[in-house]
Amino acid sequence: MGGKKRTRNRNIISKLRQSQIAGRGFSRGTQLPEALLQERDKRAKWHGIPVLLQELYESSHLNSDFTRTHTVLKELSSLLSMEAMSFVTEDRKTAQESTFPNTYTFDLFGGVDLLVELLMRPTLTTLQKPKMNDDLVKDCLSVLYNCCICTEGVTKILASRDDFVLFLFTLMTNKKTFLQTATLIEDILGVKKEMIQLEWIPNLSGLVQSFDQQQLANFCRILSVTISEPDVGNDDKHTLLAKNAQQKRNTSPSRAEVNQVTLLNIPGFIERLCKLATRKVSEATGTSNFLQELEEWYTWLDNTLVLDALMQIATDEAEHSSTESSDESTLATIPLRHRLPQSMKIVHEIMYKVEVLYVLCVLLMGRQRNQVHKMLAEFRLIPGLNNLFDKLIWRKYTTSNHVVHGQNENCDCSPEISFKIQFLRLLQSFSDHHENKYLLLNAQELNELSAISLKANIPEVEALVNTDRYLVCDGKKGLLTRLLTIMKREPPDSSFRFWQARAVESFLRGATSYADQMFLLKRGLLEHILFCIIDSGCKSRDVLQSYFDLLGELMKFNIDAFKRFNKYVNTEEKFQVFLTQINSSLVDSNMLVRCIVLSLDRFESQTEDVKVVEVLSECCLLSYMARVENRLSFLFRLVNIINVQTLTQENVSCLNTSLVILMLARRRGKLPFYLNALREKEYAEKYPGCLLNNFHNLLRFWQHHYLNKDKDSTCLENSSCIPFSFWKETVSVLLGEDRTSPCAIIGYIDEPYMEVIDDLVIYELHSRPLKRFFSVIYV
């Protein structure tokens, strides 16, 4: 008998699932007899949800005043809300159907479809009908959001309905329903297969302009999904082969790029974001207990809906309160739970600044970069951030700011950490290869750069001369100088070091500027970097890579930097530690190797300068690289650690560094010697043809990759001070087909070991499907 009852239960669920698949919508639960549902309810542990859904459906007819509808929905909501809260506080368990049976049952019996129909009813009929009140709309949205986070597949189903997604944006015009709408949209867009086009949103410009500053900050959470290129989710897709093939297929702008242009065309949009990013935050709770509270609240406020709901409560409390004490001693006597609203206000502001900075950062990296740069400068974003630096972005406090969160030491999950990292990423994007980088200085620091150039008897950089003094930083220190100050205080393995080094390095990238280098050298940056590499015990490969790259930009062609290096690395033991760090990962350190090789080549042509001759003879680093066997050792390993199939933006610099070594050898007529050394190395390792065939393939790829990319070729030329024409010419010589040529790779590969490869094969490599911070491209 029990078996028959279980079978009947399974039959009911099977029919419901079939109607779900058939797309019969919210009515599927109403087609079952109420008596049958009540009979099976207790045994199936449905908690009366199917019956309540029938009542919800019947009470929401066209002529209803929705009073009973709202009452039933509240009853349903109470059954679902605890599951949603449990989901938020238990790290989003994956076994959702079994863990959250009420939400699953609600969806199974058509609850999600019914709420969607109820919300969209005004767009589906022209008949006059009672209007749904705001509270009912809010509850519908909240229940839908709970279903999205607790029941697998609901979000994707909603995301597949473009009409519903676009309809949700129309609800954002109502301030009372904005919060719930924004949170639901954010969740839906996060799983949508195809990115939404912002221009599809009815009256987008008017919608955005109607937002107050808080709503606009909230809206940035949604925008971040619509303007970022989707993550492909597979590391092999990040190879240059895969990316080049993708670019061949996609010749038109991506949806993310189109959305970026749409946003830039909204009047006043960028100006308002700049104001949001730079507005001050109330510090009423004081600094002594701020971080402790921040961490306590964030451990359970992982869900933005909960956070915003609390913020809304806090705002309501503030409106009904005639006074609010900001005295820290008074606050200390109040229980922590009663100080929640003020703490939430600060967390709230920090979290939204993260989103605003992210949107600005993405726009800075897009195709409209110059237009964005011009607006950010005009609206004084950098001076505004400089004014916030000490009081908000990097406040002075005793609690360690490199707390390990969870099990990942590089976790950027807390609002405080996310805010700092996003700030550093913005500085990196702002400075990288752009003349506006001098806005990170104040007027006095600009004068210092001019004085350095005058003393060295070299012309000032044109970008420096053209910098508008009204747009630079105010105060005693510019943003770059402040960044250097806190950089020196960071613990050795702090994840912030990586981002700090990247931000400072971006200021130096591009055409080498002696004045820029000296400005940083005078502030002890080189000694700080060497301490971190040699003496600090830093083990993080990411941090070490960022410091190697920064050191390379800081020392390139600068004889004073090499003199300072030799003064710090004043023992053989220190020098060996330094070399060990370099050799431990050439992918991480090859940009520094390239800097040393290039600098040595220039210094050797300046032997009339007494200072240069002195440093050449005394500097252990230059003496080490001057020995040909050491340059050959680097060349062997650089060619050996990469191949065409594994090239990425991270390691393609190894190919270009090997090319630099060979270009300089060619200038001095020693290219045949280096090629023959590669051949001898192959035979010594008993792998004849291995190195040279691999290098030949890499250079064929190099031609296809770089000859059609103006930006990348310009970067190569600026960073090396070698005309790109010489790069192209050297590659062509190396790939020559005449086996008798002393400079052609093919002449050093014995015929039995020769791999046959031609343009057709290279093209197939590009097109072959292969199984990824905002990453900086190092070329």
Automatic annotation (TrEMBL):
Pfam families, from UniProt? DUF3689
Alphabetical GO CC annotations of the entry are: Cul4A-RING E3 ubiquitin ligase complex
List residues traversing the bilayer: none
List this protein's GO terms for biological process.
Answer: ubiquitin-dependent protein catabolic process
What is the top-level taxon of the source organism?
Answer: Eukaryota
Q: Where is the signal peptide?
A: none
Extract one GO molecular function annotation from the record: phosphatase binding
Q: Which PANTHER family match?
A: SHORT TRANSIENT RECEPTOR POTENTIAL CHANNEL 4-ASSOCIATED PROTEIN, TRANSIENT RECEPTOR POTENTIAL CHANNEL 4-ASSOCIATED PROTEIN TCPC4AP
Q: What is this protein called?
A: Transient receptor potential cation channel, subfamily C, member 4 associated protein a
